[in-house]
Amino acid sequence: MNKTLDHIGIAVRHLDESIQFYTEVLGGKLFDRYRSEAKGVESEIAVIDLNNSRIELLMPTNNSTSPIARFMKQKGKGVHHIAYVVDNLDEALEELQKQNIRVMEETRRVNKHGRRLIYLNPADTEGTIIEYCDYPDLV
């Protein structure tokens, strides 16, 4: 199954300052900005397009329940996850199961852009948070 880098998620403390850095210093363009209160997300998200590569800036909106807040308490701000787009998320999950790679089922969702996604268990990915996603409405 094909896997291509989709985006990099970066945990930030101050979204406006981070947007300013990624747009003014690195030359990116703000593609979208939205707030998600979905369980397991609870963050404000800015999507930056940087020469046809995507960066998601993630700022927690609930410091007691947001997984981004928990991540920052443990590791500080910085790269949170790497996302790979797959041809078909359901088939990719079957492939992972055959390889004994666990996923974090509670993270499965569809975002506002129609992207279906799920996170792989970091215990099975050498500690890296990896997202698998697909865009079924764009096929």
TrEMBL record:
One of its GO terms (molecular function) is methylmalonyl-CoA epimerase activity. Its EC number is 5.1.99.1. It comes from the Bacteria. Keywords: Isomerase, Metal-binding. SUPFAM superfamilies: Glyoxalase/Bleomycin resistance protein/Dihydroxybiphenyl dioxygenase. PROSITE patterns: VOC. Residues 4-135 form the VOC domain. Pfam families: Glyoxalase_4. PANTHER family: METHYLMALONYL-COA EPIMERASE, METHYLMALONYL-COA EPIMERASE, MITOCHONDRIAL. Belongs to the methylmalonyl-CoA epimerase family. This is Methylmalonyl-CoA/ethylmalonyl-CoA epimerase.
